[in-house]
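TASK: fixed-backbone design
INPUT:
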């Protein structure tokens, strides 16, 4: 078996406990724990404590690496929200853990498995990673919605927000297009829209502005209930939503979010590829 990726970061530590790496992708931050040699199965209360920014390490999600479950993948990756709910996908987290695992095995490309499917991660420069995020789903029962309806025009309104596009890329999304994204107070409407009765599993809420044919500006309210500085899956579906609405025909687009930008490429069969930066914050031990 390969040496744990902690060996590159944690040699200076001698304290007992579970090693972790703290990383962020455009300030979307994560606690990375290696559970391959020694399983790591924290309780819901443990996860809430770890992700709490006052009492724990603090993070948008806890990421646990486990042994590969499929013969053609390098590892299985669990993605857990700060409320303890395990989710299918997170683009920024996939870039971060993809970078660590690529450095561990000294390869240019690997495949990792998540609850949302198998994702290919490729080095794209110094601390930059491209991830094939999988197929964007558009059928009402794949998002899922509570009833059969046109996912290109959902009958949902909250203040100035109306007529979103519904999609799923490992997690549910609704994308609203507006003239000026900075004029929308998503803090005010995010929780109401996230828990709308149309979304039995709740949804991430994106507000997008088309700046030109190959550039979008985007803000996202994420499950479990917070504004995020960047959302990789949200960027993917925002570009796909712009295509579905006929707002652009560009297959490669830059998506600008509060903490920076990612590049999104739409491929055949509704596949999305996201490229963006990663950063290591620090390492430590959970005790």
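OUTPUT:
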């Amino acid at each position: 078996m390969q040496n744990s990726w902690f060996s590159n970061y944690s040699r200076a530590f001698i304290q007992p406990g579970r090693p972790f790496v703290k990383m962020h992708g455009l300030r979307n931050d994560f606690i990375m724990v290696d559970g391959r040699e020694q399983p790591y199965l924290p309780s819901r209360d443990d996860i809430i404590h770890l992700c709490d920014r006052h009492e724990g390490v603090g993070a948008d999600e806890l990421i646990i690496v486990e042994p590969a479950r499929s013969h053609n993948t390098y590892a299985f990756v669990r993605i857990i929200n700060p409320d303890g709910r395990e989710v299918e996908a997170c683009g920024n987290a996939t870039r971060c853990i993809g970078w660590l695992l690529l450095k561990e095995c000294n390869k240019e490309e690997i495949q990792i498995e998540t609850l949302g499917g198998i994702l290919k991660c490729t080095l794209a420069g110094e601390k930059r990673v491209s991830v094939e995020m999988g197929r964007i789903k558009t059928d009402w029962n794949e998002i899922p919605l509570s009833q059969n309806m046109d996912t290109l025009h959902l009958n949902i309104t909250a203040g100035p927000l109306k007529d979103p596009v519904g999609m799923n890329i490992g997690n549910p999304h609704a994308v609203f297009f507006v003239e000026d994204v900075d004029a929308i107070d998503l803090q005010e409407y995010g929780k109401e829209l996230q828990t709308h009765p149309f979304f039995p599993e709740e949804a991430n809420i994106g507000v997008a502005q088309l700046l030109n044919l190959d550039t979008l500006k985007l803000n996202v309210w994420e499950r479990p209930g917070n504004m995020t500085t960047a959302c990789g899956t949200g960027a993917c579906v925002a570009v796909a939503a712009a295509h579905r609405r006929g707002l652009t025909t560009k297959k490669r687009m830059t998506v600008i979010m509060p903490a920076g930008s990612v590049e999104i490429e739409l491929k055949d069969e509704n596949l999305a590829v996201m490229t963006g930066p990663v950063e290591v914050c620090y390492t430590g031990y959970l005790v």
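COMMENT: Residues 91-105 form the longest helix (15 residues).
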